[in-house]
Design goal:
Layout (H helix, E strand, L loop, with lengths): L11 H10 L2 E6 L5 H15 L4 E5 L1 H14 L8 E3 L4 H9 L4 E5 L3 H8 L7 E5 L14 H10 L5 E6 L10 H9 L8 H8 E5 L7 E5 L3 H9 L3 E4 L21 H13 L1 E3 L5 E3 L3 H13 L1 E3 L7 E3 L3 H12 L7 H5 L3 H5 L6 E2 L2 E5 L6 E5 L9 H11 L20 H21 L3 H9 L5 H7 L3 H8 L4 H8 L11
Parallel strand pairs: 1-6, 1-9, 2-4, 2-5, 3-4, 5-6
Antiparallel strand pairs: 7-8, 10-11, 12-13, 14-15, 15-16
Length: about 500
């Protein structure tokens, strides 16, 4: 692969300078702002004055592919070698023996890595990519991974660099753990309890006195930001990009070995056999292409009715989880409440709201619908309430589209999906905090493809068939209905 010449963008040079000037620092910059190449550039420069291997901690996909790939992409990094310390213990030990300037591993391997080196810890420079993984650290409890890192973070590490796009996804309380690895509690408090007592009040949730949420005090954000200002560089993409069109960021995901073998079998033979004994065959070229796409996505239909399927891998879901951690967004509620296909939801415009209804023409069937926003008694429906909230939401740029970003850009299939997953994770978290683990598990199991069937299952068959735009009720009943018909008992 031909290496590319690197010219730092306007916002990347400050990142490189900040890492070089501040020995223990954090860079808070959004996704796509070049944090990885900036950090690699700084580490390459530091190798001259502070020679020795560096350790990169990152989610598995980033450690296994993103950091090594980025090092081989740029011409100025030709002397940088990244060894991915992932896989089985034997594979990890072999990766550590390879000559390299940077060793990248995932957070789950931290306990093993610290135990492996013991007192002979060799990494004086550590980069914590997606540093929110450290937010759970506490002096006497908290996450095992962060506890392992804490054993070496201040006594054996001279440079500690944190990278993230969302330093406080759940609120200001997420900052203490990350800040501790930079200054050992000097700025935000020696312990989490001290941090909490100074800047938060505890609000009881429900009847359980142990179930509380932390509410920041009015002055908390300003004071915390002021204390962290010398260590943290915060960059907002909106200050540098004139975003009139969506920025497409291609996330490449490597197929796991087993999935790749199945993919090759289908591609060459138009046939594959799963480990469970199920055989899947494609009868023509179009069918083969669809099956290969399904395998790449992580699951494949195993029958002709598309009702049974087998899960093959979750590599794309893991990649999506990494993306969600960096990109917050609005929940995709409208798709469920209207029962429409995602493509039809995405093209909805404010001008389609007329006379107490939203007008829809379905792409697939060309069928026209008027979905009412008020019930028979004149009260607002849930859909009506959601649309009211959307219309009331402040946007920096006016948009013709109902579903749009604050910048006025219409969402696409991908951004709609990521926002759905973000909303699902948030809902599951709230259920867990409320003590309803069963509900949380059900929420996590709910898939994007379940939205239309859920909508169809919560109303009578005739209404569901009309709302989904089906010409025959039989299609609605067989393909989309997930519950049986509601009937009355004999007495």
């Amino acid at each position: 692969m031909t290496r590319q010449a690197f010219t730092p963008r306007e916002y990347q040079q400050p990142v490189i300078d900040h890492i070089l000037d501040v020995s223990r620092d954090a860079v808070w910059a959004g996704m796509g702002m070049g944090k990885t190449v900036s950090a690699l550039t700084a580490l390459d420069i530091l190798e001259i004055t502070e020679p020795g291997p560096a350790l990169v901690l990152a989610p598995l996909r980033l450690a296994a592919s993103t950091w090594p790939d980025e090092a081989t992409k740029w011409a100025h990094l030709r002397n940088v070698e990244v060894s991915a310390v992932v896989g089985t213990p034997e594979e990890r030990r072999a990766a550590l023996k390879r000559p390299a300037t940077i060793y990248a591993t995932n957070y789950d391997n931290l306990p093993w890595l610290v135990e492996h080196f013991g007192d002979k810890w060799p990494f004086r420079k550590v980069v914590a990519d997606e540093s929110t993984k450290l937010k759970s650290f506490r002096l006497r409890q908290g996450g095992v991974r962060a506890q392992s890192l804490a054993r070496v973070a201040h006594c054996k590490v001279d440079r500690f660099i944190e990278l993230t796009g969302t330093p406080s996804p759940n609120g200001l309380q997420d900052l203490w753990g990350q800040a501790w690895f930079l200054d050992k509690g000097v700025r935000l408090g020696r312990s989490f309890e001290a941090f909490k007592a100074r800047w938060f009040q505890s609000i009881q949730v429900g009847n359980d006195r142990h179930a509380v949420r932390l509410e920041p005090l009015p002055f908390a954000q300003e004071q915390i930001e002021d204390r962290m200002r010398d260590l943290c560089l915060s960059l907002d993409a909106r200050d540098y990009f004139d975003i009139s069109q969506p920025i497409v960021n291609v996330i490449r995901v490597e197929l796991p070995a087993k999935a790749r073998r199945l993919y090759k079998d289908m591609e060459r033979e138009m046939f594959l056999a799963l480990e469970c004994g199920t055989e899947v065959e494609a009868f023509n070229a179009a069918s083969k292409t669809i099956k290969c796409l399904q395998l790449a996505n992580g699951a494949i239909y195993t029958d002709d009715t598309c009702s049974a399927f087998a899960e093959i891998h979750d590599a794309k879901l893991q990649a999506l989880e990494d993306v969600i951690e960096e990109a917050a967004g609005m929940p995709a509620l409208v798709n469920y409440l209207t029962g429409q296909r995602p493509a039809d939801v995405l093209k909805m415009r404010l001008a389609d709201i007329k006379d107490g209804a939203i007008e829809v023409q379905q792409n697939k069937t060309k069928k026209k619908l008027r979905i009412l926003l008020d019930d028979d008694g004149g009260a607002r429906t849930e859909l009506g309430k959601v649309i009211d909230r959307i219309k009331a939401r402040e946007r920096k740029v006016a948009s013709l589209f109902l579903i749009a970003t604050p910048a006025g850009t219409a969402l696409n299939q991908w951004t709609l999906r990521t926002r759905f997953d973000d909303a699902r994770a948030d809902a599951a978290k709230k259920a867990t905090e409320a003590g309803d683990d069963q509900l949380a598990a059900r929420i996590r199991a709910f898939q994007f493809r379940d939205i239309r069937p859920k909508a169809a299952s919560e109303m009578d068959l005739e209404h569901a068939s009309k709302l989904l735009g089906h010409t025959e009720q039989e299609i609605t009943e067989k393909v989309y209905r997930r519950v049986g018909e509601t009937v009355k008992p004999t007495k």
